[in-house]
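Components:
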Amino acid sequence: MKAVNQIIKEKPWMGWVIFFITMVVTFFIGLLASSIMERRTEAIIINKPKADIKAFESDNKVWGQYYKDEYQSYLQTADTSFKSKYGGSATIDMLEEAPEMVVLWAGYPFSKDYRQGRGHYYAVDDIITTLRTAAPAKPGTDPMPATCWTCKSPDVPRLMNKMGIDSFYHQKWSTFITEIKNPIGCADCHDPATMDLQITRPALLEAFKRNGKDIAKVSQQEMRSLVCAQCHVEYYFKGDGKYLTFPWDKGMDVDNIEKYYDAIEFSDWTHSISKANMIKAQHPDYEIYSMGIHAQRGLACADCHMPYKSEGGRKFTDHHIQSPLNNISNTCQICHRESEAELLRTVYERQDKIAEQKQILEKLLVKAHYEAKAAWDNGATATDMKPALTEIRHAQWRWDFAAASHGAAFHAPIEVMRIIATGIEKTQQARLILSKISAKKGIIEDIAIPDISTKANAQKAVGLDMPTIEKEKQLFLKKLKTDWK
Amino acid sequence: MKAVNQIIKEKPWMGWVIFFITMVVTFFIGLLASSIMERRTEAIIINKPKADIKAFESDNKVWGQYYKDEYQSYLQTADTSFKSKYGGSATIDMLEEAPEMVVLWAGYPFSKDYRQGRGHYYAVDDIITTLRTAAPAKPGTDPMPATCWTCKSPDVPRLMNKMGIDSFYHQKWSTFITEIKNPIGCADCHDPATMDLQITRPALLEAFKRNGKDIAKVSQQEMRSLVCAQCHVEYYFKGDGKYLTFPWDKGMDVDNIEKYYDAIEFSDWTHSISKANMIKAQHPDYEIYSMGIHAQRGLACADCHMPYKSEGGRKFTDHHIQSPLNNISNTCQICHRESEAELLRTVYERQDKIAEQKQILEKLLVKAHYEAKAAWDNGATATDMKPALTEIRHAQWRWDFAAASHGAAFHAPIEVMRIIATGIEKTQQARLILSKISAKKGIIEDIAIPDISTKANAQKAVGLDMPTIEKEKQLFLKKLKTDWK
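Structure:
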């Protein structure tokens, strides 16, 4: 201190220099302290004691006690008020929107009921109330396998762990109706001990293994898509055991999955009008996303559907899973500098063009199914019909692959347009073949199509007795509340 | 100076302060001086004396004396060595690549000869040597109108100015063969007095006027596309005067241009096999570019095909007009951070998917033309045939709109895929109608298609005597060098 005093005495301006240096250093120390405190607060709030959540804990509320930000944002998925031009998360009666679908799925449960899903929060409610799961008289007497539950609840891994995967799939859907209570939630994607992302459903792991891929070697960024890909994929129920299987062994695109199904002669059902052996596409979201530019540039599902969020100094993943169109400022605009209006216009332009072609294809498929029926009615043989029915099978598979995938028209618009173009070509090819078959039987006039202008008319046309089906469902739901519990 | 010395004497540290301030100010003055000098150099080199170029100067060399950077880069368009997966600027025999095109254009000069253009530098040579302009015996005796010259040379505005637009179009193509010498160049896009971009061809100005748009009000950035749009558009030769006209009055998209042509019952030719009244799409490059994301985000043609370039401190527009795939670092990578390989892959993915569907459509169109011929051969009437021939007309128009436009698959891939999908639907619809017409005449079997596996076979199949056509052309080219000069 003495030396400093001596210096200041000799060079008085040095006093000011020391003063300013001290100020600058103090300022940066302040910044550092603030940063440390913030990180500490985050650490306290985010990295909670983990030991309290037991393995296979399926109750989302239990997790929510420790991970408040994530849980509170997850609860917002209960809100279904957002409605984009093409649906968003609100419930839309798709059969009302396009009654052609009733004909396309004739003989299959989707022709009874097909609504835009309300999202994860309602997964359990929605599978119970949909007409597709029918109205079993008592537990274990229904035609649907337990496999239908696989993607609906974190109770599923718990049950699989308890009874074995095979045994689980082997039960009836209604067997677990009083056991499965929690909608899709925390345990589906997270390890309760470490909170790491994890794959809890066997089908994805099995598909990886069959194709020589190691799930342990994928990056965290890939996991931010793969946890979604446990369910948001094309799959089928294999064999009598209804074993949930991904048909990825030849490739993940529409052509290679078609080849896979053809090779094993798989069909979901025989069409009740055309008698074609049909494939029902599920929701090949991960497959189509993978073929789009956003995936190719390294984005994960979570980047757009669960972006990072800051609240009160805490940064966390927004678990309000939703359409990015409802959250453009936190998703698209992280990279794209255009206005919300312009970004919406860009998305809608893609969706409009694809919807236009999809609707053309639906109308052509309706004609093909009825023209096949006419050919059968006029005495065509199975050998005559096979080429046309194969074209119908492939064409509708392509339509469904594009139509059933959530957000397909945005995720990979060029591939989806290509898929629909091939569907149009094949449907028309089927119609050409059928036209010749009928001509050989002396039938040249256009085949009459029944009135399918509304959902009700179309359901009547394909022979569905909807009042009875609905009455039975109501009775089932009533009994579920009283007798089954 | 005395006052300063006094201050320094009293407070010696002030000397250092004055020293540092002087250093900082001097540094910024240095920066300013450098900037002024650079701008001055640019000004000297770029804004040359302008009075030396007279109005309608069509000789590119004359302009090149003053605008050396631009002219030297323009001369590089003579290099045709670049060859991308889908052609680039090298000459490719498109009929050899896809002999189906010979059938699609049967009865029209394109079935004789269709090569990938070699670029602006060769515009005059290429129009003289192509078999499409046939082999007139002497000037003024050919079937092609002078309108064909419109986009080939800066001699055209000169001639139009001299003789009037109407009179120019009214001549024969061969009338100007010794008069037009300069390939597409400076005067086509620039005002010699101000070097401003300008529209020199009447059709664009007339289309703007008819649709209530004022060319004087468009931005410089729009002009950087519109000078290209003088020629790189869909157009037709209107009436007996063969007046070059843009069919934009109902809109610039494929559906609205189709409606425009239908409304005036325009056709380029009657197909020699199916007898359908066909429309030949030219190169609707500007129309398709306008429907793509790059146009929607404000890019002009010049941004990718003529990017800015720096050489020796001079910044200028690169007049080596070429595919951006040959110049990725100066074009795509200005905005996109991906590697050249990844950007190429992205472009090729779009092109591959569209090429796949385009080829499917070509094969279907070939069948439709021959099936129409069979229906005629079996006694169908014009009334029977009209619906099918209309579908063929519209389907092939859509194929051609996508196929003829340079870079269509990249410029607006979703729209182009949509166009092809509608083409497939319409072609198959035509085939269905034709199948029924033939069935009514008792013909149910598939119609035989001749061997069109090579260009030569296809040309033989459509009745072209290529050896004679080629011999006549050689004779014409020989006489052109001797007798005509």
